[in-house]
Amino acid sequence: MPTILDGKKVASDIKNEISARVEERKSKGFRAPNLAIIIVGDDGASHTYVNGKIAACKSVGFDFTLMHFASTISEEKLLKHVENLNSDEDIDGFIVQLPLPEHISVEKITESIKPEKDVDGFTNQNFGSIVSKNQLILPATPFGVMELLRRYDVETEGKHCVIVGASRLVGAPLGMMMTESAHATVTLCHKYTNDLASHTKSADILVVAVGKPGLISEDMVKEGAVIVDVGTTRVEDKTKKSGFRLSGDVDYDTVAPKTSFITPVPGGVGPMTIASLLLNTLKAYEDQNPEG
Ligand code: NAP
Fold it and tell me: In this structure, what are the phi and psi dihedrals at residue 253, rounded to the nearest 5 degrees?
């Protein structure tokens, strides 16, 4: 049977480490780290994610500042709020929860965030630093995947890592991290990739980040592979009180018995993304409030 890459457990360990660090700083007279979260509109899933981030902040002793705006807010006004957060010395880092309404340019908003406070690691400067010796704030989800593999001592050097999904938030930066920091040989697949199975079948480590439940079936996976399922899609489930459950991109029940390590959904990459956000906020706070 495979080892479960238990993101919930690892995230909890990381949170304990962060809490201890916050207590140590507070005992020296420093204030707690403060994360601001901007959310625009009333998308249910976005509010659920934001509530999870607020709960995580509370659990490690961070302060948080929630800014909720109507979906009719103009791009100009939102940019003004970002500018204010950039110059607010009491805010160490902030995120703008995606998606944004269509009339607002995600790229414009993201690029207006001061890189030192960009704790999602989305700005071009932070993204580009992945391939620099001086890595800055790393994109949260790929950082979480790397940390999960590292804490389970999954061997990556020289291994063939196949990533399915090449988005700016997950697949593309993860490909760079796998090459730069983990010394894996990377194949990055996307929706134009011909014969996806021919690639996935040769993966020692297979990471899937698409958002299509059932995309990866048992016949597409090599015996003994390591599987990281980033996909998170709400699918209807009348047996649940909420009426839905979260599904990954991998057909877990048939694939898991073939693997050496596998992430569950939920409880795998999701909690690690939040833990990375906390680690990034702690880094932003410590960099901007050095001990002396
Ligand atoms: P995204 O921006 O929609 O990107 C999906 C990627 O998959 C794109 O590169 C897309 O190609 C590619 N793709 C689409 N269909 C494909 C196919 N049939 N075969 C191979 N590649 C295909 O989504 P994302 O933000 O990266 O998120 C991906 C999934 O991860 C979603 O389910 C999301 O909810 C989840 N996610 C989870 C976490 C977490 O913390 N657990 C964090 C972030 C994202 P094109 O760009 O060419 O369309």
Answer: -60, -40
